[in-house]
Amino acid sequence: MAFYEDFSKVYDQVMDQSLYDQWLAFTNRHLAKTTQSIFELACGSGALSVRLAQQGYQIVGLDISEEMLTLASQKATRAGVSIDFVAGDMRELSGLGPFDCVTCYSDSICYMEDLNEVKKVFSEVSSVLTKGGQFLFDVHSLHQMDAIFPGTSYHENEEDFAFLWDSFAGESAHAVIHELTFFVKDTDGKFVRKDEVHKERTYEIEQYLSALTDFSKVEVYADFTDDAPNQESLRWFFVCVK
């Protein structure tokens, strides 16, 4: 499982920031009106956490990467909002909560090694939700993993860093391997190379639904919209009620 250790250095520069506005819009459309507290799993550099906090919600953000949480704390300070950021693993949430809503976006569930780990996350989320609380998350679709990612490349060259992202089909069904290479300028002006490998995997919608046993209602949408998924959808969104 990748922890975005070196990626954190250039994450905000290569990440499409407009995506956070789309995650925010989707969340706002589906949040219960009574929601006060939100727990953001895999909060990364805090872009969505800050946006939600600015709307008045009580936010706790969790990420496995200490480097990402440093960026998130700095971002919250600059924005003038108070957010509790916690270093931890979404597969172990004991001692946290309860929360009115839990979110897990940016296909972070796809970083789980297998379906058993996915089920573990779902169980842990249920344990920190209030009765009637919501769980909002997204994953890559089968189409995205099988037909779009394999063989694609994204390269960016800036003054103080260069970034190469190449994707290949994984060994398991509906899996992909992302090979990331960074050249980041050090304090002495020299560029330092760092390499990371990120592995993602997704499953059929029915498998996700079968794993959400602790939730009484589950709705599935596609690509930041309120439309049902189709064969060419790239990202599936789940809105679950405990």
TrEMBL record:
Keywords: Methyltransferase, Transferase
Molecular function per GO: methyltransferase activity
Domain Methyltransferase: 38-133
CDD domains: AdoMet_MTases
InterPro entries xref list: Methyltransf_25 (IPR041698), SAM-dependent_MTases_sf (IPR029063)
Keyword GTP-binding set for record: no
Gene Ontology process terms (BP): methylation
Organism superkingdom: Bacteria
PANTHER family attached to this UniProt entry: METHYLTRANSFERASE, RHODANESE DOMAIN-CONTAINING PROTEIN
Entry protein name: Methyltransferase domain-containing protein
Species this chain originates from: Lactococcus hircilactis
